[in-house]
């Protein structure tokens, strides 16, 4: 069964770091682009950062610029989160979208594209609190 497994969340103090991982089971990430999304209670799930596996193009939403780094290797996609703030708290999900649906890496990170994604991880909780 094809699925994504995201992990790496936890409780961290403001200013701390976490590294989230997203691994695919049952399919290869080679043919997909990956987005990291965050959801907080009462708000719509929003993209944080996206990467196209084919050429390693990346895009960061404003909330992530300068603090988060999206990367990948042969087995997983990662989101390194540094200088964390309380407002970064939420459930983080990775999601995969087939490359044939992707126009630009920026486009796959825009609001309103959630329904286009093919696979979603189960989510990992990130809590930034002193």
Question: Would you kindly provide a written description of the structure presented here, covering whatever features stand out?
Answer:
- The protein has 130 residues and is an all-beta fold.
- 0% of the residues lie in helices and 48% in strands.
- The chain contains no helices and eleven strands.
- The protein has strands spanning 3-7, 10-12, 18-25, 32-39, 46-52, 57-60, 68-72, 76-81, 90-98, 119-120, 124-128.
- Strands 2, 4, 5, 6, 9, 10 and 11 form a seven-stranded mixed sheet that branches. Strands 1-3-8-7 form a four-stranded antiparallel sheet, with no helix packed on it.
- A hairpin with a 4-residue loop joins β5 and β6 (57-60).
Helical fraction: under 10%
| Content of β-strand | over 45%
Segments where pLDDT lies below 50 for 5+ residues? none
What number is the mean pLDDT? 94
The global form is: globular
Count of helical regions: 0
What is the CA-CA span between the terminal residues? 40 Å
The secondary-structure element order is: EEEEEEEEEEE
DSSP, total strands: 11
Secondary structure topology:
Blueprint: E1 3-7, E2 10-12, E3 18-25, E4 32-39, E5 46-52, E6 57-60, E7 68-72, E8 76-81, E9 90-98, E10 119-120, E11 124-128
Parallel strand pairs: 2-11
Antiparallel strand pairs: 1-3, 3-8, 4-5, 4-9, 5-6, 7-8, 9-10, 9-11
